[in-house]
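tool_call predict_complex ligand=pyridoxal-5'-phosphate
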Amino acid sequence: MTHHDLEPLFVSHAPGYWPQEAIADWNDAKWQLRNRVDSLTELESHLNLTQEERAGVLLAGNKLAMSITPHFFNLIDRDNPDCPIRRQVIPRIEEGWNAPEELSDPCGEDSHMPVPGLVHRYPDRVLFLVTDRCASYCRYCTRSRVVSGVGEQQLETQWEPAFKYLQEHTEIRDVLLSGGDPLLFSDDRLDKLLTRLRSIPHLQFLRIGSRIPIFLPQRITPALCEMLKKHHPLFISVHTNHPRELTSEVRDALGRLADAGIPLGNQSVLLRGVNDSVEVQKALVHKLLMCRVRPYYLYQCDLINGSSHLRTPVADGVAIIEGLRGHTTGYAVPQFVIDGPGGGGKIPINPNYLIDHSPGRVSLRNYEGETFEYPDPSQISQSSLAQLHELALNRCP
Ligand SMILES: *Cc1c(COP(=O)(O)O)cnc(C)c1O
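tool_result ok
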């Protein structure tokens, strides 16, 4: 990692090797998708791979496909085998080893699907998996069992039964579209899907989870934004892990979404060697705010098969939150969560600021470690409240 990575600068790309200036179609999303790096030969024509990566790429073909957009590929530091961008998208041999605690469906999604493709875990909202394709594939993908089309399992989404379920379950007020990446759909297809959902009166709120603004900012066209804004209230959660991902193209794409009135949140996954320090996280969240994106969740990496080399101790995540809270803008601090293995949902993990809680008194510490006492009103009895009331009334002129 170079010092440059942590500056709040929006550069177009790391001093690169893919000659993007020489490519007329560079800014065309279709060109980017057609020219994704998805074979060993192609990868080796650009980069000197390590042994671990070479073996990892060969292995990826029957697990989770490798695919990297030229835009994202250009952010890789060619000379640094530990480049944080590289670790996210280039497979490594360690992926082939499944630790005993790892799972193919770490969040227990398959067992919470009343209809294939629809995960209904929380009382009032659902996760709707609408596609199994992404612009590029993250090596730690929690849904690698069904994503990219090369694994053992296929994503099955039953559209009409899903719409019927949503229609019948009037307690559902929030639908989160994910996959795969829903923004890979054409404008027309996505418009039809959103229109269909909007025709269900009790659905108050729609959101899309997408890494397209990061992997393929060229897809965020004015026409897409015009279409999306017809479906408000619509939020988008993007996925950024390292400040270098926030290039000037990405900033502009996020700006177009924000200008269309779409509130933007970010979800990061805490990854070893990518973003597991206060320094990197702070640079990331500061740049996100400059892009009008509110850090939403910081995820402990799920127990997905083949992820031990990317997972970090839970204490590291707590230390990162502790290093942000109070030290920087409150809007910049995400909620650290662990998605409960087997299907517990997102469980918030926080540094402990409540040192002691005894009747009538709490002991607190602030971000600098100073302690404070706060008399706890919850312990005030009804009778003493009545006395206070009496006293106050007697004093009235
Ligand atoms: C993450 C998730 C949601 C959304 O959770 P929020 O905390 O509301 O963002 C909904 N359903 C499932 C199954 C999820 O994994």
